[in-house]
Design brief:
Two copies of one chain form a homodimer. Chain A is of the alpha/beta class. The first copy, chain A, is 37% helix and 17% strand. The two termini of chain A are 45 Å apart. Chains A, B: It comes from Streptomyces adustus. Chains A, B: It catalyses: (sulfur carrier)-H + L-cysteine = (sulfur carrier)-SH + L-alanine.
Chain lengths: 482, 482
Amino acid sequence: MSYFDAASAAPLHPVARQALAASLDEGWADPARLYREGRRARLLLDAAREAAADAVGCRPDELTFTPSGTRAVHAGIAGVLTGRRRVGNHLIVSEVEHSSVLHSAEAHEAAGGSVTRVPVLRTGEATAGSYGEALRPDTALACLQSANHEVGTEQPVSAVAELCREAGVPLLVDGAQSLGWGRVPGGWSVLTGSAHKWGGPSGVGLLVVRKGVRFAAQGPVDERESGRAAGFENIPAIVAAAASLRAVRAEAEQEAVRLRELTERIRTRVPSLVPDVEVVGDPVRRLPGIVTFSCLYVDGETLLHALDREGFSVSSGSSCTSSTLTPSHVLRAMGVLSEGNVRVSLPYGASAEDVERFLSVLPGTVAAVREKLGAPAAPAASVAPAAPAVVDAAAPQGDARVVGTPQGDALVVDALGKRCPIPVIELAKVFGDVPVGGTVRVLSDDEAARLDIPAWCEMRGQEYVGEEPADHGSAYVVRRVS
Amino acid sequence: MSYFDAASAAPLHPVARQALAASLDEGWADPARLYREGRRARLLLDAAREAAADAVGCRPDELTFTPSGTRAVHAGIAGVLTGRRRVGNHLIVSEVEHSSVLHSAEAHEAAGGSVTRVPVLRTGEATAGSYGEALRPDTALACLQSANHEVGTEQPVSAVAELCREAGVPLLVDGAQSLGWGRVPGGWSVLTGSAHKWGGPSGVGLLVVRKGVRFAAQGPVDERESGRAAGFENIPAIVAAAASLRAVRAEAEQEAVRLRELTERIRTRVPSLVPDVEVVGDPVRRLPGIVTFSCLYVDGETLLHALDREGFSVSSGSSCTSSTLTPSHVLRAMGVLSEGNVRVSLPYGASAEDVERFLSVLPGTVAAVREKLGAPAAPAASVAPAAPAVVDAAAPQGDARVVGTPQGDALVVDALGKRCPIPVIELAKVFGDVPVGGTVRVLSDDEAARLDIPAWCEMRGQEYVGEEPADHGSAYVVRRVS
């Protein structure tokens, strides 16, 4: 088995396991109590806080342990927004933040606050310039991840922090994906992290609030964790989290070089091994262990299951795997292909052999999924043009069915009720049937089509004309230019 | 070492430790993922939910795991208050609830809601009658603990639930102290619990919301735990929590009999072994393992340290051990003595030998603390009366100092700036100096005096006249009747 989804959760580091086992005996009591079991627990908690603060680069009294990274984000954003409500109620986030940040933004809007969602480049980068434009006199807080969790792109945290500093606005950095690799650079004000991303146990997040940042903890609080994280401290897990952070940091520099070389192999070789693939994310300014690509004409969920059967555990931002049936907000914000999306995120210690085996297995796996879905084998534009017709992708097997009168050189594909990647496959199948200069209108009610049809056009060098409202969905219009 | 503070946190049950170790290997991955590690984690989570639901007496889909009992209470109260806000914004809690409930009530008031705090009997019982009186047409939620965490008194949950049912008001039961002993009886609507109270690990709480209860989760949420507890699930800890709940339940009936006999020994023998002790809490309707008593003329913190040196870990609701310098809200609501308060809460497996050793050590330990504080050795009323005088307890060693002119048969003790138990000790020292019918006015700015001076009067059979405002504090007036 090769587990390639470290960006979701890393397996427990041996040091974390050891620390957890040891502190189950010493750290179960209430650290607020005066007796020896309580004092022992307090000593462990204090030591863990010092170790974590040292790794993060803050004072121990600036660092709070929370029950998860998500809770750290929720508490951090709510605390600063409330602490600075006299300044204003404007919040800035990037469009590619982790869902915990975006959920906080939605809650802020629901409570009457205003939110600017900063767009990103096609690489996934939220530029400092965009943050500079978003800053307003009533901005209470800006949020930016240190690196993206789906595509690995590193964000310009230092530059954005500097702009925020000049504007007098605190910057919250979600450091979940990068804290295992090193300190978050720059003059951030609030930092969050999650231990199970660096090989620590579940149940531990970090919330660092720099001295001087106005902060008002929200919801009922108690006396624990400086009033910023209510509830009995999970000391054994906290000890394990701090210990494993130190441990991974000790290996980080060397391991980063190794994993970067392995993900580079995937970045460079996948496009030549598998036709119609788009590798996404910044090729250089990226996390060492993450590489993401999307495969045209592929159903993400089927591909994940097929790879799982081959012994590879990867994740996908494809809508085909999501219960909400909308494609990953990250891929959407980047404007890249979402169908057949695969994120490989290598854990510490991932072997070159496993990566090579992945590269050897992937082409056949993708081909099998495509064959099953009846995807066209070669670029459709090479097919000789025939008379325009109206086809109905909703028919069994995706067979073409005339549903109306062809209008000039326009061909209509009715893919209503069909999920990705079927609308794109149907587009590709008939595209050779329209003459150069002619158009295909794809009727679809699948959210992914909005992303994947333009992406297909870009990959095929065809013109994406635009989207028009249609009965029960949208019409996506594509013009054949070659 | 004898750890007698199970009501704060129980040591990890061997079954919990075993389950935790096993599920660290199987349960670290994201249960929302499709690959095998994710599916394995999901299976563990589902099985733990079923086991916990069975132990609690609910459907699995009614049960949510939270990061702590405190978080379960916060989320449960906020969720029902919001879900039922069209009914009204009135919340009922008892005065002796856990701080997590009272903090939620404070947050509700701060947000404009109204709260009724139901008083309790001297035993700590919140009667059904009081809840019946508190219910209003605009009551959104009532909360009642299954049993009190400081004195062990069981609450009339079934009767209160029935009243609430008739009124159409959901009842939230904080079952933290009793879930290890058995299901919470009666028709409750929402139930909360905390695994580390029953020998499970830290980091796991339970929130059960019965189908049909209007519930709107507050704060940013995500797709985890039915949208009621955001953040990555701590599956190894959840598995251990469920396993240990089953394990302690299997032993509960037998262990309850055994611990009840041991706490009964303490209840009955402490008053004869130690002079001037008040055992508090209901003598019959109580948890098996908890017994609480207060010792006149004793500083709780000093007593705890002394007992710790003798190898006993106990806790105290005495103000003398609290950073906030107010006596336990539970003891205050009960109207009992707070000074020198000791809570003994026996963990599963506590031995009779350890309890006997505690009983043999306690008298000498209390006597030593009293001697150090210069407490009167025998009831002050037996001292022959002398001429009235004004004494100043603030002087070094607590020596009497004339600070004003005696008014008739009234004697004034200035204990301003002195912490419990000094004001009561000074009262007792001079009480023999006033004639029968005369009064002593104790000037004090210590919150505990408000509780402990009336309690002293009750124990001594003297008349507590009342409290009057005074410069820098209050004057507590006591009349000598014998």
